[in-house]
Design a protein that fits this description.
Length: 84
Amino acid sequence: MEIGKIWPGWEVSEYIGEGSFGKVYKIIREDFGHLYESALKVITIPANKGELASVLNDGFDEESATMYFHGMVEDIVERKMVLV
């Protein structure tokens, strides 16, 4: 995973596990002789092709499915904004 393009100086150190909607990684950055560590959650919506197929099998067309998953992303962003 290349995160340096988004967050320069940070690199993935190890895979931690999976959580809601995605995978969690330990990331590190060295700056002025100090090592900084953090966690990065990579959210994937839909989580996989099976989830998309399930929504389409439930009667959604491609546009409706896109709107459905877009709504999920918006809900996650709104909840994060409230928690911060």
